[in-house]
Write a structure and sequence with these properties.
- The relative contact order is 0.19.
- The protein is of the alpha/beta class.
- It has helices at residues 14-19, 35-47, 65-71, 74-77, 86-95, 136-141, 159-176; strands at residues 23-30, 50-56, 79-83, 98-103, 110-111, 122-127, 144-147.
């Protein structure tokens, strides 16, 4: 085995990415403070060709050098939109026909692997602030909550890691269920 060269990976150009079919998945960042986390979410979103990233509240927006350090240009390929208030994003996404999951540990949450995912539907997943998680009013406005099972001593994971796990599982299930 040998590592592939970048030229052998047949990656899309930014223009080709913009024109390509996207996975009907939107990632919403609810007041995510770390610009590096924001950048990481853009990069993962590019990898799985999701529709867009929605940045809310104090979440930083491109162009920004710190976002670029982890996004590595994905902030240019992945569409994004900014809302002052996450509730406005939730309202618009519902009106556009998205089923909205907040990713949070709550009573009656659904384990990520047990979520009923239908490849013919559109989904949005809301990731919360690094300290406080997803706001309660946003949870209340969501159609459901997803939880990643954890087995160690900590009760949470970094928001960009959580986003990566959730995006992968949603993409895997949406693509394989076709």
């Amino acid at each position: 085995m040998r590592k592939l060269r970048i030229t052998e990976m047949n990656r899309l150009s930014v223009d080709e990415f913009k024109e390509s079919h996207k996975l009907p998945l939107v990632v919403v960042l609810d007041n995510v403070r770390s610009l590096y986390n924001v950048g990481s979410v853009f990069r993962t979103s590019d990898a799985f060709r999701i529709e867009k990233v929605v940045l809310c509240g104090i979440s930083a927006c491109p162009p920004n050098n710190e976002i670029h350090k982890t996004a590595l240009g994905a902030e240019d390929s992945v569409d994004w939109k900014f809302y002052e208030d996450t509730m406005d994003a939730v309202k618009d996404l519902h009106e556009e026909g998205y089923f909205i999951y907040s990713v949070e540990q709550v009573t009656d949450s659904t384990k990520l692997q047990d979520a009923p995912i239908d490849s013919t539907k559109k989904y949005a997943v809301i990731m919360g602030n690094e300290v406080k998680g997803v706001r309660q009013d946003v949870i209340d406005a969501s159609d459901g909550c997803l939880e990643i099972p954890q087995f160690g001593t900590k009760h949470s994971m970094n928001v960009s890691v959580t986003a990566g796990i959730v995006i992968w599982e949603m993409a895997r299930r949406m693509i394989l269920s076709k």
